[in-house]
Please model this.
Amino acid sequence: MTLSGNRLYDLIRSRAPEGRRIFADLGDGRGVTYAEIEAGSARYANALASLGVAPGDRVAVQVEKSIDVIMLYLGCLRAGAVFLPLNTAYTAAEVDYFLDDAGPKLFVRDPSRSDPVRTEGGPVVMTLDAAGAGSLVDLARAQPTTFSNASRGPDDLAAILYTSGTTGRSKGAMLSHENLAANSLTLVDAWRFTSDDVLIHALPIFHTHGLFVATNVALLSGASVIFLPRFDPKQILAVMPRATAMMGVPTFYTRLLREPGLDRAAAAGMRLFISGSAPLLAETHREWRERTGHAILERYGMTETNMNTSNPYDGERVAGTVGPPLPGVELRIADPETGALLGPNEVGMIEVRGPNVFRGYWRMPEKTAKEFRPDGFFITGDLGKIDSDGYVHIVGRARDLVITGGFNVYPKEVETEIDAIAGVLESAVIGVPHADFGEGVTAVVVRRDDATLTESDVLRALESRLAKFKLPKRVIFVESLPRNTMGKVQKNVLRESYRAIYGAR
Ligand code: AMP
Model:
């Protein structure tokens, strides 16, 4: 019996379908029912309690994707602990930073990782592997299948997710039960999820997209997920006939487009394809529509705010935009320096307020205060505009803005022009230190397979399209752009690689 309320877990329970319904189809013939998820999460909650994890304690988790991780996440919610997933790519030295910063009571890692972590005075270390084995699993298996959930109110923390930290120290975004509950409910309605849905889940679960957007939306609609360890385009095509929806990053879509098997017949049973976490090229949107008959629904969010905007389910899904703000989310564009509000079609800082917005950065009250306006709007760090139809357009991260000879150049504008040149697959525009201009606009371009495009071809094509100050000073050709696991182009890596090309410091 639940003695008192647990905001997020009670909500998940209240929306769960009858227990025999499959929650996760593991793609290999095995299925995990909702009843098994309930029992498994109780076992993990009991295991956490037996290790002395109390409400409010952090549980850091750096493991491969498996259904046990979902049960552990839910077990954390039930035990009142704060779930703290870490990217599996982090090295031991990086993990040390997170363990120091977050001070978790328990650290769960893959048994194959033998690199030492500092454990003196630190957390209890337990293991869990991709196949569902490890010391924590053994402990959980021996536990009862019921648990008296810890009392957790709307403002209590459910999770801390560290931001990628490309501009300095990684920051722990504190997400409350209400942040996650409110946003997931909004998304279930906006995207019309029901218990008839079968969602392809091939995203990592250490990030907000796979952990909260995909998993919580499925749980709160009583849907099933086809739970795949990683993205493999052939496997996606193989399971698509059993699915109704997919959530992915843009690279899922570009890579699927390279599969000859992707056609209308393959996608006939699907009702919805959603993209986010990085910009989807308008061309990908168009090609996808031609091949499958489906308009990809693009949405925009971030670790700190959950989802902010979404193209409509029923209305027009406009390529190159992320749609209007979601119900309950207030979004405005402000002058980055003064905070003065800007009008339609004016580019400025995207600011958001609503029940989706996080509780601040873990143990960084000053940093947190700097990122909020006095009236409670969060300064996202993304530049964008709202068009006259109310759709939001993202221009890029503020830190990627190039300032050359005193002029602002929005990389997206230059990239859009470059991408439109025949023979260009994609591009990234960055600012590189330049003695005369401060920063020199620099284009890094990936050619299509058979293209023989040169630097002067690109510059000639741009001359009539862009003001002179926006023209790249150099065009560099590469085989591919560096991307992180969520498909984001790592402009910091590019800036570092080409730091010296103009000879300035
Ligand atoms: P993360 O916190 O890792 O989810 O990264 C959030 C950032 O990804 C946002 O602040 C945006 O810069 C970017 N982002 C997310 N969705 C989109 C989108 N649909 N289009 C463009 N950028 C996006």
Q: What stands out?
A: The chain has a mean pLDDT of 94. The CA atoms of residues 309 and 325 lie 4 Å apart. Residues 163-164, 208, 276-279, 298, 300-303, 322, 380, 382, 394, 397, 486 surround adenosine monophosphate (CB under 6 Å). The chain has 14 helices and 23 strands.
